[in-house]
Amino acid sequence: MEHITLLLAIVIVTALVFDFTNGFHDTANAMATTISTGAMKPKAAVAMSAVLNLVGAFLSVEVAKTISSGLVREDGIQPEVIFAALVGAILWNLLTWLVGLPSSSSHALMGGLIGATVASIGLSGVNGGVVVTKVLIPAVAAPLVAGIAAFLAARLTYKLGKNAGAQSSAKGYRAGQIASAGLVSLAHGTNDAQKTMGIITLALVAGGALAPGSNPPVWVIVSAGLAIALGTYLGGWRIIRTMGKGLTDLQPQQGFAAQTSAAAVILASSNLGFSLSTTHSCSGAVMGSGLGRKGGVVRWSTATRMFVAWGLTLPAAGLVAAGAEFVARQGGWGVAAVAVFLVVSCAAIWLISRRQVVDHHNVNEADGPAPGAETPAGSEPAGVVASALAVVTPPVPGPPAEAVDADAKPTIPAQAGAAAESARPAGATV
């Protein structure tokens, strides 16, 4: 019993760490468009989002019940399984944050839980019907529904405001963006904070501290809300840059349409108990609003990398969790080994991220080409993945500057100088 109590404490702390990473990973969902259009200053935006995430955590427990008693069987699940699931989810969150890709923290958690459960007791431990109806179907439907809604909303806003002055219209929509961003933050709290509540409740049931089918205790709700709020306040600036500048260039009208559509989809899913990915909803809404403006474009190279990350989230987190579960089930030394692996991996990812810092000072700077690369006219800027890889890849050695032949002639003439020569009257001297 003493070992179980210690293990439960480790699981609860790890769950709150996941909740923290979920907060800064998903800040972009609510605030990326608001920051990119200049409706709010970056630090003020994330502070508002943090407060509303905390409030949203107290509004409903339907999603928490889906996680704690619907996705996997409560009987037969040990605390080691939940610990391993959290390890897989945390590492996936941090890896996708490092390269600035918006991926689903929700699916990382559920993939980790499914992978660890299968490794522990087999496929019989997973409720396949719940996975299909409340996880997979919403994962496909959410970005489509949010994208179509945002596309139509953006078209409507431009049509209704075509006779209004550009300056006054932009000012009004910026105010609307602040309100809709607050709604998305509130919706995020009602959906994502509950996932951690559900996983802690499942751990308490598995450890014998709660009866099966119990609702999350009040202290679980409070701690989960505070953890996600703190993570949100720190801001996942890399992902905010991708959502705000990497997918498309948004005007205030489009930002308002995207956030309103995403909030409607997330709040509806929370009431139905669907464990929806707010990342999928918000990313779909951003792309839909990007296409909703005449002449607007979506950078499909970045979108494609994002879609690939979405597809990899469940299996990748599941595989890492399955491996962690195999080690953790060996006993106390196994749990300690997995914990050390998690801490070392998190520290390594953070150190790599320090090579190219993205924060509230440079979050609105669009990604440029990779160092040393030229961007052809009309092409998309280098994606976030290419930029991140360029940072961690050592430069190719070349000849020192002193070794360059001083008599070498340029292959491309200086066009400015040539133009000046042709414009100079004949016989003129310098």
TrEMBL record:
Claim: Transmembrane is one of the keywords in the record: yes
Keyword annotations of the record: Membrane, Phosphate transport, Transmembrane, Transmembrane helix, Transport
Record's subcellular location: Membrane
One Pfam entry name: PHO4
InterPro entries documented for this protein: Phos_transporter
Source taxon at top rank: Bacteria
Main location: membrane
Transmembrane portions of the chain: 6-24, 44-61, 81-101, 108-129, 135-154, 218-240, 307-327, 333-352
Presence of keyword Transmembrane helix: yes
Membrane topology: Multi-pass membrane protein
Family in the record: Belongs to the inorganic phosphate transporter (PiT) (TC 2.A.20) family.
PANTHER family per the UniProt record, alphabetical: LOW-AFFINITY INORGANIC PHOSPHATE TRANSPORTER-RELATED (PTHR11101:SF54), PHOSPHATE TRANSPORTER (PTHR11101)
Full protein name: Phosphate transporter
